[in-house]
Amino acid sequence: MLESMDGRLPLALGFVLGMRHALDPDHLAAMATIVSRERSLPRAAIQGGIWGVGHTASLLLVGLAVVLIGAPLPVSWSRWFELAVAAMLILLGILTLLRRRHEAPAAPGARRPFLVGLMHGLAGGGALTIFVLASIRSPALALATIAIFGAGSVGGMMLMSALFALPFAWMGAPRLGSATRMLAGVASITIGVYCGYVAA
Length: 200
Prior knowledge:
Blueprint: H1 2-21, H2 25-34, H3 41-69, H4 75-98, H5 111-121, H6 124-133, H7 139-164, H8 166-169, H9 174-199
């Protein structure tokens, strides 16, 4: 019984940490720019879910490498990934600010949120989670914990993306949507600069 509980604890903890991980400022800033022209809450939630899938995919790939090697990845790798995320946040913010106020919304795509999630999964808290999971003795349990962590991040980001899209869904208030888009762009640039400063 105790052995079974020991196996379930990392899985439950992984899901909770995944939900919490989705609320990191850099993740929220990136997704706010991505859904900044989305007028449909369900589509915005799907965009957040795609981010989570990309995030989980990179975690599983790195986690598999850690399990096979039996040792955590070099800390210097995480630093370069964090710098890449910082540059990505700045670029996303600039692109968001450059969009014209009355520009027609583009059809939602999966590529951008997937790639953004993929990059985020390699940096920051995601990479640190991989280091912790390297100490789990069972490879199967380690990979299952990563998958559950990813499921938590998918759920958390779907919820937050839908919330971010609320001002844009209320197109009866175009000024609100424009102001929120500008705020998302400025926040993304600011957080990107801060993340780059910390990582450098």
